[in-house]
Write a structure and sequence with these properties.
Number of strands of chain A: 0
Structural class of chain A: mainly alpha
Number of helices of chain A: 8
Helix content of chain B: 25-40%
Radius of gyration of chain A: 23 Å
Largest interface: A-B, 72 and 50 residues
Structural class of chain B: alpha+beta
Shape of chain B: elongated
CATH topology of the largest domain in chain A: Rna Polymerase Sigma Factor, Chain: A
Shape of chain A: globular
Strand content of chain A: under 5%
Strand content of chain B: 5-15%
Number of domains of chain A: 2
Radius of gyration of chain B: 42 Å
Helix content of chain A: 55-70%
Oligomer: heterodimer
Number of helices of chain B: 6
Order of helices and strands of chain B: HHHHHHEEEEE
Number of strands of chain B: 5
Order of helices and strands of chain A: HHHHHHHH
Strand order of the largest sheet of chain B: 4-1-5
CATH superfamily of the largest domain in chain A: RNA polymerase sigma factor, region 2, helix turn helix motif
CATH architecture of the largest domain in chain A: Orthogonal Bundle
CATH class of the largest domain in chain A: Mainly Alpha
Chain lengths: 241, 212
C-alpha cells in the first residue's frame, strides 16, 4: 500500500527568534552568569534504576542476601556525596555531617519497606538527610554552641579526589568556611532551602518535595533566605558577597 | 513601567525561580534603572559565591562507616529506624486536631447536652404537651378492662412516680370484656406496649392490646 506524501518541497530552516541580550552597563563588576545547575537525575550507572534497587532491597523480588547488600551498596555509592554535602551545608561540621549522612543510609536500609516505589527515591532520601540534620542541630543547640572554627571545617583528610590545586583548595576551603559561617546564622528552614536550591542545585519543585512544603512556600522561603543570607554576609564580613 | 519596589521584590529570585513574565519584567526594568541593576548585581554575585562553593568538592566514601554502624549496634539502629522522614507538619496538625476533638467531647459531656431520661414536657410540639387525660374509672370494676390503642402519637405518659416514660396512643378505646369479640380489628393502627415495662399478656389479643 502506498501513501501519497505529496511533493516534498525543500523547506527553509525556520528562523529562531532572536534572543534579546541586555547589557548591564550600569552593573558594577557583574560576575559571569553562573552555569545552569543540572540536578542529579536518578543515575543508572549501575544499569539499574533507583526504584529497581530499592525493590531488591525491599525483598520484593526473589534474591539472595548478597544481592540485597549489593543493591544497597549501589544506592550508597550513588548518593553518598550528595548526602554528605547536604548534611555539611546544614550542619557545618564535617564529622557530624558524615555521621548524619551515614545514619540516613542506615535508616533507609532499616525502613526501606516504607518507601513507595512510585515516588522518587532521592527526594525521599534527601528529606531524611535534611530532617536528621535538623534533629542534630537541635540536639547540638541544647548541648553547646559550636565554635566558629568548627563551622566550615571540611574534614579534608577524609575527602578524596579533590580536583583543584592546593592553593585553589585553600581558597575554596576559606570560601566554604565563610558560607558555612553565614548559613549558621539562618533559621533551619531557610538554611535548608539555600542548601538544596543554591548549593545542591535542585529546582523549586524538587526542593518542595524534599521539604514537605508547597512550591509556593519554597519560593517564598527562598526569597527570604537569599535576603537573609545577604544581610548576614554583610553584617559578618562588612562587604557584599 | 514597573515600579522599583515591584521589581526589587522579584530580584532575589531572578532569573530561574521567576515566571517567564516576571523575569521579562525585571529585565526590561533594569535597562533603565541603575539602582535596581546594582541590586541585581549583588544577588548575582551571591549566586556566584554559591557556585564557587559547590566547585572542587571531593568524593566521600561512607559505606565502610555504614557497615560498621550496622554491625556495632543493630538494636539501637533498628529502634532508631522507626523514625523515618515523616512529614512533620501533618503530625503536628493531627495532634492538634485530636486535642481539639478531645476537648470538644469533654465539653459536650460536662455541658447540658448530656443525654438524660425523657421528661415531661420534652416534646417540641406544644400542642401535644397538654396534660394526658386518663380515662374515667369504670364503676365497680370487677376485672381490669381491656384497652385497645389506636394509632401511635407523640404524647408522653408517666407512671405514678413520674419516673418511667411511656408513649401513649392517639386514642384508646375501652373494650368491655363481653364485647371484645365485636370490636373490629384494626391492626394497622394498634400499638404494642414496650416489652420490658409492660409485657403483653399471653393469649387472646396478645400482640395488640394493653392491659392495666
Amino acid at each position: 500500500m502506498t501513501v501519497g506524501l505529496g511533493v516534498l518541497a525543500p523547506v527553509a530552516p525556520r528562523a529562531l527568534p532572536r534572543r534579546r541580550v541586555i547589557h548591564l552597563a550600569n552593573t558594577p563588576s557583574r560576575p559571569e552568569p553562573t552555569k545552569q545547575i543540572v540536578p542529579a537525575s536518578p543515575p543508572v550507572a549501575g544499569g539499574e534504576t533507583d526504584e529497581a534497587l530499592v525493590t531488591i532491597c525491599q525483598g520484593a523480588r526473589p534474591g539472595s542476601e548478597e544481592e540485597r547488600e549489593r543493591a544497597f551498596r549501589l544506592l550508597v555509592e550513588r548518593y553518598e556525596d550528595r548526602a554528605y554535602w547536604i548534611a555539611k551545608g546544614m550542619i557545618g561540621h564535617a564529622d557530624d555531617a558524615r555521621d548524619v549522612a551515614q545514619d540516613a543510609f542506615i535508616r533507609v536500609f532499616r525502613s526501606v519497606d516504607r518507601f513507595d516505589p512510585n515516588l522518587r527515591f532521592y527526594t525521599w532520601f534527601y528529606q531524611i538527610v535534611v530532617n536528621l540534620s535538623i534533629d542534630h542541630l537541635r540536639r547540638r543547640k541544647k548541648r553547646t554552641r559550636l565554635s566558629l572554627e568548627d563551622l566550615g571545617e571540611n574534614g579534608e583528610g577524609q575527602i578524596e579526589g579533590r580536583s583543584v590545586s592546593p592553593s585553589a583548595a585553600v581558597e575554596h576551603d576559606e570560601l566554604q568556611r565563610r558560607v558555612a559561617r553565614v548559613l549558621a546564622e539562618l533559621p533551619e528552614k531557610y538554611r535548608s532551602v539555600i542548601v538544596l536550591r543554591d548549593l545542591e542545585g535542585y529546582d523549586g519543585k524538587e526542593v518542595a518535595d524534599m521539604s514537605d512544603a508547597t512550591h509556593a512556600t519554597v519560593r517564598w522561603r527562598l526569597h527570604k533566605a537569599r535576603q537573609m543570607f545577604r544581610e548576614a554576609w554583610e553584617r559578618i564580613y562588612g562587604a557584599r558577597p | 513601567m514597573s515600579s522599583c519596589e515591584q521589581v526589587r521584590d522579584l530580584i532575589p529570585l531572578f532569573p530561574d525561580d521567576l515566571e517567564a513574565s516576571e523575569a521579562t519584567l525585571v529585565r526590561e526594568h533594569i535597562t533603565g534603572c541603575a539602582p535596581c541593576a546594582a541590586e541585581l548585581g549583588v544577588y548575582a554575585a551571591q549566586s556566584a559565591v554559591f557556585a564557587r562553593a559547590r566547585e572542587g568538592r571531593g568524593r566521600v566514601s561512607l559505606y565502610a562507616g555504614i557497615q560498621a554502624k550496622l554491625h556495632e549496634s543493630p538494636a539501637q539502629t533498628a529502634g532508631a529506624a522507626q523514625i523515618v522522614a515523616f512529614p512533620r507538619r501533618p503530625l503536628y496538625a493531627a495532634a492538634a486536631a485530636a486535642l481539639v476533638l478531645g476537648l470538644g467531647l469533654l465539653a459536650l459531656r460536662s455541658g447540658n447536652n448530656a443525654p438524660r431520661p425523657i421528661q415531661k414536657g420534652d416534646d417540641n410540639n406544644v400542642a401535644l404537651n397538654k396534660p394526658v387525660e386518663t380515662p374515667a374509672p369504670l364503676t365497680q370494676p370487677t376485672q381490669a378492662p381491656r384497652v385497645r390503642a389506636h394509632g401511635f402519637g407523640h404524647r408522653n405518659f408517666f407512671d405514678s412516680e413520674g419516673a418511667t416514660p411511656y408513649r401513649l396512643a392517639d386514642s384508646v378505646e375501652l373494650v368491655p370484656l363481653d364485647e371484645e369479640a365485636e370490636v373490629p380489628q384494626t391492626p394497622s393502627k394498634t400499638y404494642a406496649a414496650p416489652p420490658a415495662a409492660h409485657p403483653a399478656p399471653k393469649g387472646g389479643d396478645e400482640d395488640r392490646s394493653l392491659s392495666f
